[in-house]
Design goal:
By secondary structure, the protein is mainly alpha-helical. The N and C termini lie far apart (89 Å). A hairpin with a 4-residue loop joins strand 1 and strand 2. The chain has two helices and two strands. The radius of gyration is 36 Å and the shape is elongated. It has two domains: 32 residues; 39 residues, no CATH class. The protein has a two-stranded antiparallel sheet with strand order 1-2.
Length: 92
């Protein structure tokens, strides 16, 4: 019984693979499809978009803001024990 099931399974797989390969070959060679063998129209290429020029001043300001945020999160000024804005030194 096991040999018969294996043989039937093998035949099904071979049939499916044959149909898949036949369909691929047919589509690559242009057969069996709609359109009558005419080549599809190729659209004209578009002009490439111009890349934006980086704004050096904006980049410098952004970098300064980033560094200021990093400094504000580190060191003694970022602890709960000191409040520099009020001149209060709780931890001193």
């Amino acid at each position: 019984m096991g040999k018969v099931a294996a043989l039937v399974g093998q035949k099904i797989v071979e049939s499916a693979v044959g149909a898949l390969v036949g369909g691929l070959v047919s589509s690559v060679l242009g057969g069996g499809g709609k359109g009558g063998g005419e080549a599809p129209a190729i659209p004209a290429p578009k002009e490439p978009a111009v890349a934006p020029v980086p704004d050096d001043d904006a980049a410098r300001r952004a970098e300064q803001r980033r560094l200021a945020e990093i400094r504000a999160r580190s060191g003694r000024a970022s602890t709960i024990l000191s409040n520099i804005a009020d001149g209060d030194k709780l931890g001193a």
